[in-house]
Design a protein that fits this description.
The chain contains 3 helices and 2 strands; from the N terminus they run αβαβα. It is mainly alpha-helical and 97 residues long. It is globular.
Length: 97
C-alpha cells in the first residue's frame, strides 16, 4: 500500500490520474481465496490514497476464459475484460468531473 501511495503522489505531481483495476481471476480460484482477496481489498479501501472504483469480484471470469495460467485470458476472456475495463474508465472519468 505504501508503494502504491508513493506512485499516486508521483502521478498526481505530474497531473496524472490513477485508477486501480484488479487482475482477472478464474471463478474457481476466487471462490477458494475469497476471504484472503477480501482482506487485501479492505486494506486497499482503507489505506490507499485514492478511492477504489471497483471490486476484485468485478474481474472474476469463468475458468473457460483462461488458458495456460490464471492471469492469461483467451480471446473471449480478453473481450469480456476489455469491456469491463472500458466501463471502469468511463465511470472513473465521470466521477472525476
Amino acid at each position: 500500500v505504501a508503494y502504491l501511495n508513493e506512485f499516486v503522489d508521483f502521478a498526481h505531481s505530474r497531473r496524472a490520474n490513477v485508477l486501480v483495476l484488479f487482475p482477472p481471476i478464474p471463478d474457481i480460484q476466487y471462490g477458494q481465496s475469497q476471504m484472503a482477496i477480501e482482506t487485501v481489498y479492505q486494506r486497499l479501501k482503507t489505506d490507499l490514497k485514492i478511492p477504489l472504483t471497483s471490486t476484485p469480484a468485478r474481474f472474476v471470469f469463468p475458468v473457460a476464459f483462461f488458458y495456460d495460467t490464471v492471469y492469461h485470458l483467451n480471446a473471449e476472456g480478453r473481450n469480456a475484460r476489455t469491456t469491463r475495463v472500458i466501463s471502469e474508465i468511463r465511470q472513473s472519468m465521470a466521477s472525476a468531473r
